[in-house]
Amino acid sequence: MTFYRNLILAALILTFGVVTLGAYVRLSDAGLGCPDWPGCYGKLTPHHAADAINAELAERPDGPVSHDKAWKEMVHRYAAGTLGLLVLGIAVLAWRGRREARGSPALPLLLLGLIVFQALLGMWTVTKLLKPLVVTSHLLGGMATLSLLLWLWLRERGHASHAYFARADHLRGSAALGLLLVATQIALGGWVSTNYAALACTDFPMCQGVWMPPMDFEHGFTLHRELGETAAGDLLPMTALTGIHWVHRVMALIVTLYLGWLALRLLRTPGYAGMSLVVAGLLTLQVALGIGNVLLSLPLALAVAHNAGAGLLLASLVVLNYRVRRR
Fold first, then answer.
1. Residue pair 35/74 in contact by the 8 Å Cβ criterion
2. Domain-by-domain residue ranges, the chain?
């Protein structure tokens, strides 16, 4: 089953790349670089669709379509398509070798279903014109894929994956809550990004010079609406964007305090000092990147790094939960 494990590892690494690349596409406003799916104006590559792209540029020079954006969007689709093939291969091998595998093929089959749903979300992201609920769901699906592939890889490594970890059943509840909090914060971060609310507060630690600026939570957290609009079709007010951003900050404080406490608890648990340093280090990095994005007006490199850091922090909590739940 060595090939099977290596295939899982390749898919895991590629998933992290796809999630990061997806953030780059979204943050560089290239999500509609090709306004159809799965090709680009019905063609395999933007090169073959050059005439259609040029025609769109002639009509709308400042629109969402350009050659550069089209290539960004399609490279992301190529990477996601490759990942889909890898997960299909994992599911087939898991089913065929289910008697020799370390667990049932249920998890690989679940991953395959998730990848299919991710493909649909990718299509809807384009056809629904970057609807926030769809784009945020697409991000969460990518993070879920990353988490499940990591769990599967740890499971297939067997004893080698936890040779240096003592049993720590008392940490199960704490680790699970930490994972839930990080996942919730990622969802809120996705909601900030997909609503373009990252710069609703341009100062720190206060927001717009006060601790509690005017906020509209009702419109900000209405899920079923178009980008930049309320459910009634009116322009989304700035107070709604402020509310979205502010909630993300408050949740960041909660996550920071909780994971800081969890890291200290891990430090006092035999065999988990290294895990403590990883969680604390990634948490510190995420906080620094978040503050930097606000104070430096969301530079693309820092914004993408913040998304990648969220994936790594989530992965560290997945590893921790696997460790404390192993038998």
1. no
2. 1-161, 164-327
Q: What angle do CA 238, 240, 243 make, to 5 degrees?
A: 110
Q: Is the pLDDT of residue 93 over 60?
A: yes
184 in Cβ contact with 313 (< 8 Å): no
d(CA 97, CA 22): 33
pLDDT digits (tens, 9 = 90+) for 265-293: 999 999 999 999 999 999 999 999 999 99
Neighbours of 203 (CB within 10 A): 11
SS3 state at 35: coil
Give the helix ranges, DSSP H, for the chain: 2-27, 50-59, 67-96, 106-127, 132-157, 172-194, 217-220, 238-267, 273-295, 300-325
pLDDT at 166: 64
Q: Which pair of structure tokens corresponds to residue 121?
A: 């979300």
Say how far apart CA 266 and CA 275 lie, in whole Å. 7
Is pLDDT at 239 greater than 60 in this prediction?
yes
Task: List active site positions.
Answer: 73
